[in-house]
Amino acid sequence: xxxxxxxxxxxxxxxxxxxxxxxxxxxxxxxxxxxxxxxxxxxxxxxxxxxxxxxxxxxxxxxxxxxxxxxxxxxxxxxxxxxxxxxxxxxxxxxxxxxxxxxxxxxxxxxxxxxxxxxxxxxxxxxxxxxxxxxxxxxxxxxxxxxxxxxxxxxxxxxxxxxxxxxxxxxxxxxxxxxxxxxxxxxxxxxxxxxxxxxxxxxxxxxxxxxxxxxxxxxxxxxxxxxxxxxxxxxxxxxxxxxxxxxxxxxxxxxxxxxxxxxxxxxxxxxxxxxxxxxxxxxxxxxxxxxxxxxxxxxxxxxxxxxxxxxxxxxxxxxxxxxxxxxxxxxxxxxxxxxxxxxxxxxxxxxxxxxxxxxxxxxxxxxxxxxxxxxxxxxxxxxxxxxxxxxxxxxxxxxxxxxxxxxxxxxxxxxx
Amino acid sequence: xxxxxxxxxxxxxxxxxxxxxxxxxxxxxxxxxxxxxxxxxxxxxxxxxxxxxxxxxxxxxxxxxxxxxxxxxxxxxxxxxxxxxxxxxxxxxxxxxxxxxxxxxxxxxxxxxxxxxxxxxxxxxxxxxxxxxxxxxxxxxxxxxxxxxxxxxxxxxxxxxxxxxxxxxxxxxxxxxxxxxxxxxxxxxxxxxxxxxxxxxxxxxxxxxxxxxxxxxxxxxxxxxxxxxxxxxxxxxxxxxxxxxxxxxxxxxxxxxxxxxxxxxxxxxxxxxxxxxxxxxxxxxxxxxxxxxxxxxxxxxxxxxxxxxxxxxxxxxxxxxxxxxxxxxxxxxxxxxxxxxxxxxxxxxxxxxxxxxxxxxxxxxxxxxxxxxxxxxxxxxxxxxxxxxxxxxxxxxxxxxxxxxxxxxxxxxxxxxxxxxxxxxxxxxxxxxxxxxxxxxxxxxxxxxxxxxxxxxxxxxxxxxxxxxxxxxxxxxxxxxxxxxxxxxxxxxxxxxxxxxxxxxxxxxxxxxxxxxxxxxxxxxxxxxxxxxxxxxxxxxxxxxxxxxxxxxxxxxxxxxxxxxxxxxxxxxxxxxxxxxxxxxxxxxxxxxxxxxxxxxxxxxxxxxxxxxxxxxxxxxxxxxxxxxxxxxxxxxxxxxxxxxxxxxxxxxxxxxxxxxxxxxxxxxxxxxxxxxxxxxxxxxxxxxxxxxxxxxxxxxxxxxxxxxxxxxxxxxxxxxxxxxxxxxxxxxxxxxxxxxxxxxxxxxxxxxxxxxxxxxxxxxxxxxxxxxxxxxxxxxxxxxxxxxxxxxxxxxxxxxxxxxxxxxxxxxxxxxxxxxxxxxxxxxxxxxxxxxxxxxxxxxxxxxxxxxxxxxxxxxxxxxxxxxxxxxxxxxxxxxxxxxxxxxxxxxxxxxxxxxxxxxxxxxxxxxxxxxxxxxxxxxxxxxxxxxxxxxxxxxxxxxxxxxxxxxxxxxxxxxxxxxxxxx
Lengths: 416, 969
Hints:
The complex is a heterodimer. Chain A has helices at residues 6-13, 42-55, 87-101, 103-107, 125-140, 150-156, 184-197, 241-247, 310-323, 372-385, 399-402; strands spanning 35-38, 60-63, 79-80, 118-122, 146-148, 172-176, 180-181, 201-203, 208-214, 217-223, 226-229, 232-235, 255-264, 274-277, 282-286, 292-298, 331-342, 349-352, 358-362. By secondary structure, chain A is an alpha/beta fold. Chain A has a domain at 115-180 and 258-340: D-Amino Acid Oxidase, Chain A, domain 2 (2-Layer Sandwich), CATH 3.30.9.10. In chain A, helix 2 (42-55) packs parallel to helix 7, helix 2 packs across helix 10 (372-385) and helix 3 (87-101) packs across helix 10 (372-385). In chain B, helix 5 (174-185) packs parallel to helix 11 (450-467), helix 7 packs parallel to helix 8 and helix 8 packs parallel to helix 9. In chain B, strand 36 (675-681) and strand 37 form a beta hairpin. Among the domains of chain B are: 1-148, 2Fe-2S iron-sulphur cluster binding domain, sarcosine oxidase, alpha subunit, N-terminal domain (Ubiquitin-like (UB roll)); 159-272 and 407-467, 3-Layer(bba) Sandwich (FAD/NAD(P)-binding domain), CATH 3.50.50.60; 275-404, 3-Layer(bba) Sandwich (FAD/NAD(P)-binding domain); 501-564, Arc Repressor Mutant, subunit A, CATH 1.10.10; 831-861 and 868-968, Probable tRNA modification gtpase trme, domain 1 (Gyrase A, domain 2, 2-Layer Sandwich). The chains are: A alpha/beta, B alpha+beta. Chains A and B meet through helix 1, helix 5, helix 7, helix 9 and strand 17 of A and strand 6, helix 3, helix 4, helix 12 and helix 13 of B. Strand 17 (331-342) of chain A pairs antiparallel with strand 31 of chain B.
């Protein structure tokens, strides 16, 4: 075991860095585990990590059909925040933000958390009223949030165009100063390394092909690398949740849509906060490499193909260039799509399922990355104890029967 | 221009015009047609930039825009490709990413610290102490990034266009030209696209025969044939930048983005030449063989004075012959192959007595000065895969050309989900399977032999034309060998103990960086890419990805094919954000009566995409104006433009069934000539829209939707009917009608004299009736509905008559003192009646039961969208309810919309609508409250601006005219 630090970097320089230990092992799957997590993205890895750390359950496997963090963990715009409207959402995302705040140190892996502040823009009187309501509600939940005037926004983001003559002028906004970005891949890798250190088996290139059940209970999984017996299975596969649920014989109120993002070529720093606008569907931040990272809206059609259509990108960039005319001559370098799993109320499902021993964590829509540690933390609790933690009790699958939905449609810059 | 060759070299130059430009503050001269890079090289300037991480000096590598070494700042635009951008008079060019000067970059010190900066070092450090990380982050941010962007840089003009060819051919090299010619003969419209300025591809620079004449002959023949076919449209200087579903492609030329739908597609995009990996292979003066040929043939630039050519194919011998012919001394041809087969080009090199060493490689480049160029190449005998003999011979030279292999230029193939597999025999990735309607030819599909490429081109053109419906003649034969084998060295990677053996030039990644990441467990090719950033720079892995696959394959023991490649996505090359943004065409919509409102002094406000009158009058008189408008409607008569309402025609034998499924109410038995309220919920039972359904015939409904919801309602209808397949047509006629609502006790009196063919009397035309007729000679639909709670008629006419309708009604109303009224007055009027506005009084969760709208749900229907959820809600306990409230204390501050309802320290709801009602002489409003606060007579507290809590009483709705007597007069 080798801890990461400046001193270990200097030490390993003597050998040309050829002798760093593996960040995580590459074990063969064992025939049985206490718990199997399906999905080696951030949520699955966090769940395994907290199962081992908080609940002492280390005989755990994380199964990943591709590579670690290859799904939405590696495809999002890396934004972190907790400025959610409803109490239950706010509590969950705030827990997550608090875990993020100590994650680099806890994992001994720099996830490059950058709490540079997150500005939300209002373009209409309706937006402004809604933002005021949110700021009020968020503050009443003890979470930092402030209203901003256009002049204050201009001060924070000097390159923004606050002219009243544009199609959707900036007439105000809000900020969560503790919001920001983190390096998404590093979150997955750090959690993988942390879980592995505590004994969790991380098994890549292993797709689940069936869920074995007896008398309404999970007994194991069939995978492309053989059968694995287990009494507890946690599913954290985002866009493919409905596929896994179908294997277990039930349906989910989930629709899967493509969501796209892109980066520009790297340039020297020009924007020091995260800016998002729900009305015109833009997220912008600048990565530590200098690339502008922008998120677009979802494609309206349903799809499992991890790519979206060009018109969505065109309309997002049209809006971005109105807000930031200087982006115009910059070049787009890469764009990509992920599959978001969206619930009718734009809130996630974390909890029990109709099958005993089978637990579900999905429906994060466009908000999955920021919730990674919090989601894993409550999901680990749910799996370990067989009952939801108070933080995720409201996010049951049952709510679609009881009607106790949690509307967070307005929480993201992306309309669901 | 000391390195300029005499004519005829320099195909792209116009030597009649000299162009002066500046680089790093010094003025240089080039010719018209020069790129910045070629003009600088002609002037002996070989260093254009500093590298991303170690700030090493860099010069041109590919001369075709496929590396980031030539990224420069031109004016206020950063990161422009100097080897693609033509010089213009007065152009100001600066190098990027240095501190001090390009020659003396203080940050080159970072190169000395490389030992402490292995790949991913930032994941392993700086997180402790926690408080210092934000400072480290600032330093890292400042050091990364390439160019800078001026804060006042304008958007500029960019636009978009659409093209619909039968056959699109991408790539204007020999194969693409042949394909276009053949496809055109079949008769369809052919579009030929090439990213270069001159058609011809490799025919413009490569050498295919001993005396270098064949390329020109072939090119002349092909261009002649091309010009003879008027149904071929040629777009050069045009980058095909992405493939999307169903052969929908994005082209970029100048400031225009073309979106092309092609029936069939021929890809003839060629291949990317690949560098040799050795110590100091990034020095300025080390470049691809094809870059050397481009400099000589396209730009008339002598790329050095003494050259070493490292090669593993006969193309390298062609490069050596071109160099010799250009007057460059060829110090040595170093052939990596132990036993190179003889062919026309090797024989020609032998005839010219060019020295050749076989079974050897360039092992190191010796730097000139502070890495500003090459002084010599050290050449060593190859002893095994990637290993060399210990002794090396030094060959003085200032140019090292690399011709060791290719990889297909397959981004569009990958994007179209074609299959590519590794071919052991040719040591290259090769096309294995193409999707329907896509064909490939030329070196992209492995045809390196010129005649084979032409044959493949003709065949692909024939196939594409046939696929597009233009079958013609017999299939052209392919008889020549493709000659893909023997072009690419299987292991052009020579790991050096001192490193600086660059795999990715953009990201300054060396062989050991990738090896170390593999040791740490980042073994999946995608993980390796993300951890090391290999292939993530501006050139997107053109050169870095194949060596990475080779290294992974070797380290893991998995086959090349199993290791796979990283995903390729649009864009193929770089596209300006401005291209994609275009002109932001999202126009504001005006109703047919817009200018009448302006003439009447209306203050306009946005409503969805539309502008609507907020009120009529000057801003200081806002509240008086609204008050007068309300009073006029309540006591007399008013006129409002409601053209922005959505309109949908539902026609067909299943129209009533369709309505019954889409909306919560019952429509099967809705009588003809009657209107009925419609409320749409989603599958979660949440209210998403409302309006009125008019039944004109058994099989014809006209349905209104909210201004901002119309498009979504239309989309939802189409989406569901794609599943249901009912026999109906749904047409969005929003904006095809102009409409007004004339409301107030005198409305009938104003309207009646103008009407023809419709009897407005109470008996003949009752409340919720709908009629057809004429008003002022204009064909019109009359809807007797009452959003504002007075006697009133909505009159819908074809939009072109909108202004005439407005004028006729205003004239007729004059004697009655009729006033136009705006949205604000309407909002107050409907609030008095307790009508909700969807999306103002509802949110993304509001259910019919919460909004007290259960009356609009048909109990006995078998199905409607959201029925299951609504039924569950009906059984469950309400967590909140929308109620009416009033504040009778005239001294209390008036709450605003979105102010919160608070109980103790708990938020129980919020105000959705609020106003002072003149008619009722109190503040009235709608608010969500906890279900145990919803009973009439409960008191709620509203937290207003400044934090004060204002008590309000929950009251029964509506506030005004509870029996509806006024609207049913």
